[in-house]
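Support reply, case 0932

Customer input (verbatim):
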Amino acid sequence: MGKKPNRLIYEKSPYLLQHAYNPVDWHPWGNEAFEKAKREDKPVFLSSGYSCCHWCHVMEKESFEDEEVAKLLNSHFVSIKVDREERPDVDHIYMEVCQALTRSGGWPLTIIMTPDKKPFFAGTYFPKASKWGRPGIMDVLNTVQQRWAENRNDLIQASEDIVQLIQDRSEKESEGELSERMLDRAFNQLEEGFDSQYGGFNGAPKFPTPHNLQFLLRYWRLKGNKKALSMVEKTLTAMRKGGIYDHLGYGFARYSTDNKWLVPHFEKMLYDNALLCHAYLEAYQCTGNKDFAQVAEEILAYVMRDMTSPEGGFYSAEDADSEGVEGKFYVFTRNEVLDILGEEAGTIFADFYNITREGNFEHGTSILNYIGHDIESFAAKKSIDSNQLTEILESSRCKLYLYREKRAHPYKDDKILTSWNALMISAFAKAARVLNVSIYAEYADRALQFIKDKLIRDDGRLLARYRDGEAAHLAYLEDYAFLLWALVELYETLYSPTYIKWARNVYDELKRLFEDKDNGGFFYYGSDGEKLLTRPKEIYDGAIPSGNSVAALALLRVAGIMGSGEIEEYAENLLKAFAGQVDKYPKGYTFYLVALEFYLSPQRNIVITGSSDSENIWSMLTAIGQYFLPETTTAFNDISQTEIIAQIMPEVSQYRMIEGLTAAYICENFACQPAITNVEEFAIRLKEIQNKYS
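Our regenerated output:
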């Protein structure tokens, strides 16, 4: 007889559906579960995670599929499963509880609370039985059940104390001075933690954190600090060589478990690859290193091939595990490689990618990497031409990729998140103009249309998740802020004024739904959202930049494009609202500092006026993407759309063609230079601007 499903079978979340046949009587987050807990006088057991989380899988197999654990939970608790990617508001608050109580966090997140949602116990992964110095979930549940029956007042008092602690700990932003001093201190802190041998910052586990690199590129440009640029080059090169990169199918894993980028946590997240694409594109602009451009192209090739829905939205993630084994899909033995490729090509490929007899991973398998050499040094060592080596490696890669495709694939989380899609839209849009590849702009615009068609309610309210025909969950700050970023990137690639019109609407919605009118900044969830224990404001830039940081930069850019003093002032006040907090530890807020660098840099606006069917127009607009000009905003006064441009960007509409010729105006230091009508002269001027800083 088949297993009987629990309530999660009616959910759309891939993570919740993974637990739909557990013997645990799971509930989704909602009033029904808490009403039941009150009615039956039971504490609530909350487990939060996501579909591609390795240790979530482990805890499910060990505990949530176990009849003994399920019996204990079903008898004495009301159990709730939360997909942290669908309900980041819930996860955020209870993760803060975990970090406050245990000084650590992660997923799976385990919380036990009263029926009125007040937590008194927190942790992450627990084995079924106590081992490795960790308490077992059976011991935890038995102890809590006993104390609930005998000393409930103690648990209730503990929950009250914890709630008070969290409310007191809620980010108390304080205004501060917006100065370069924070930039200098952040650079010094990053430099102190920089790994000069392998790149990246601090020790294992090592996360890519692309916004650290984006900050350093801007710091190099603003200050002329060559060490900042070299730190970025070292990190991006080392990551590309390491096992954190999928050398056969492309794309980056979430982080490296060691300090040299060799052994990844194999799951691939959409947001990591979007942000890393940004970093590699900007590094290419700064250095001209075509290897960086190639990595960006490969990331996008992976997303187009494996992570794009038929309707144009982008899927969320791919699991670390296949057939219940972490990394099994990705690793090879040396004999396997030689059998597939033949002795000669197989030996070259295996030697280049450090695939050895003994292996560098579990059970004699190897993770592909080329740490320790590059094409030129390896070719010299093997006494073969570097071009010939490149051809052998690429031909072999294709054969191994096709072989690997026959393996059981890791699970794909096919939900479509507004926030992560917006990040990937921004990456595709930037790539389109930096690399001058039109298909990238097509993918970006198609995904944006997906959001417009599928993730906006009839009343205009943006939603956070789409899957299997259903859009759900009121969008959070990140959704709106990242969408604003995507709209700016797409505007500066395709120059349709409708993107700026939408961006202006997003600005209005940010203020209406998320604004803290008393202290400044934006709350994490909207005023129309579920009221939780606290209503936090986040500025810390962790694996993903915070919504406040991204909003600040995007609003400054929108203000520059529109010539809006109102939006510029609002963005300035947004930065000021968190300046005191950021100043305490600038290294933790590097995307905020990217916005601050934009604010502090001498502003430059480029307006090009002409007809969209003019070849000169697109030659000029394309030329801009070849240069790293992060303090520059660009607008296009298309004379065929004068009416809508005058409505949305009245200042832009004032710029005129010169004697019927396309004209480019470069305005900086509160003055506009004479119009340029020659494409070559315009490109020379852009190059001069970039070289002035480098």
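We compared this against your earlier run and they match. Two observations from our side: Residues 170 and 473 are 24 Å apart (CA to CA). The chain has four domains: 7-169, 180-322+413-528+535-600, 330-406, 604-693. Please reopen the case if you see a mismatch on your end.
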